[in-house]
# Entry
Amino acid sequence: MLADTISTGHGWAADVFFLVAVVLAVVAAVLHALASRPRPAERRADGTLVTLHEHFWTPVLGWLALGFVALGLLVL
# Structure
């Protein structure tokens, strides 16, 4: 059934979900690459260092991509 649906091309909604999942995964990978670069730090008056520009969207977008893959498989 799954192979028949894929081969006949009737899974257009699944294709859309898979496309959204790929886009979200690419954006998450780019954000992860940006977050892994050395970032500027600011020294406070008490001597502690504070890192600027934390990226917290990387895991959120990764899980959303996984959810869209699951939705695509569910539609198929």
